[in-house]
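Query structure, 308 tokens:
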């Protein structure tokens, strides 16, 4: 749970960005002259967009499982001093749609790390309902698709993520559940601004043409091989880094169990997308991330205990 000081710091960052965002939007708006004298109302909401975005990110770092309980039981009770112009919960849900675009832009500009030359790639399922209710589900009927992972079948989407050695998300894509991990167009989009070595599991084995295309763009994709394939020479460094690929699984676990990336209570596609971006933003502001350095420290301490 974020403290009042942490919420104030988060609000300062979001509010500074929203001010610049609104300024740029107003400068690029096309003014249409009206022949009628009818006045248009453009009153500001009681709760600003920066406050809405701050509360959405704070919710995904809290211990509450639902936004309704977080807003009614915590925000309206303990954060009235920080947010003096609180609205009803129904109105807050409506304000989420108005704050969606600034939220997306804030996450893409402030919550994405930089490539360091060592990257890890993986995907996780984002189911929108239980398997028993797939045939009855209507909200994402023509949008989501059935997919299959190592844990079984699901109905929903896939979130493909690339992180650096500091466990910072540097690229992500949301696709339908039936999109393969080694999809050529998907990998090209994910690796657009990357360089160096990219480590993945066996699901990211690609054709030679795709590998060469990524290699010419500055990305060397390194994966494990299947049992029925011929072994190829690999440096000891790459073998060690492949073993450290579990750091991205820790990131996925934090996104799902702490930041509440996945749940089956969505009532609209807008709320689903807002939930995805809010969870990614909340993960970025987590004080402790499962970085690669902590994995090396754990292995060194373990080897030291064995030697003793």
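Result returned for the query:
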């Amino acid at each position: 749970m974020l403290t009042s000081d942490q919420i104030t710091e988060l609000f300062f960052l979001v509010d500074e960005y929203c001010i610049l965002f609104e300024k740029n939007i107003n400068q690029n708006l096309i003014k249409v002259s009206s022949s009628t004298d009818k006045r248009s109302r453009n009153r500001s909401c009681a709760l600003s967009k920066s406050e809405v975005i701050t509360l959405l990110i704070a919710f995904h770092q809290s211990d509450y499982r639902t936004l309704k309980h977080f807003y009614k039981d915590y925000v309206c009770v303990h954060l009235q001093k920080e947010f003096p112009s609180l609205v009803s919960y129904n109105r807050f849900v409506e304000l989420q749609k108005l704050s969606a675009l600034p939220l997306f832009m804030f996450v893409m500009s402030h919550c994405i790390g930089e490539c360091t030359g060592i990257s890890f790639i993986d995907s996780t399922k984002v189911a929108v309902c239980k398997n028993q209710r797939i045939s009855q589900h209507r909200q994402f009927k023509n949008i989501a698709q059935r997919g299959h992972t190592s844990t079984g079948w699901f109905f929903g989407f896939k979130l493909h993520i690339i992180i650096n050695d500091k466990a910072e998300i540097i690229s992500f894509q949301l696709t339908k559940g039936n999109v393969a991990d080694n999809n050529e167009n998907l990998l090209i989009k994910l690796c657009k601004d990357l360089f160096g070595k990219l480590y993945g599991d066996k699901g990211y084995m690609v054709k030679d043409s795709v590998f060469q295309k990524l290699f010419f763009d500055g990305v060397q994709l390194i994966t494990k091989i299947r049992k029925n394939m011929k072994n190829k020479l690999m440096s000891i460094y790459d073998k060690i880094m492949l073993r450290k690929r579990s750091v991205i699984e820790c990131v996925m676990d934090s996104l799902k169990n702490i930041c509440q990336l996945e749940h089956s209570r969505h009532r609209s596609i807008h709320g689903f997308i807002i939930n995805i971006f809010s969870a990614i933003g909340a993960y970025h502001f987590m004080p402790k991330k499962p970085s690669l350095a902590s994995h090396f420290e754990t292995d060194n301490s373990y080897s030291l205990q064995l030697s003793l």
